[in-house]
Amino acid sequence: MSAPFAQLEQAAAALGAALDADDIAEILAATAALKAGVAGARETVAAPPSPDARPLIERILHLLESAQGRVNFLTDLTQRRLAALNAARGMAAATYSRPR
Asked: How many helices (H) and strands (E) does the chain have?
């Protein structure tokens, strides 16, 4: 069972690194690897994971939460930039907001 989770951990770490690098191609590749890792973990786990897998799963969750924080930061930064550009052009602020 640890092999699919190890692959998932590597994919989550790669996504964080890709987000930090601000490289779209890397982000897309890491996202595809993460999707494959999740699918692989789902296929191989028929029962709850063993207690010895818990630290690995917690590391994966931490990596994914970190990636989520990066995405939220980048989304907010982009929204602020668009608002500033719209203000400079004399346009109304965009009305888009993220669902909560």
From this structure: 3, 0
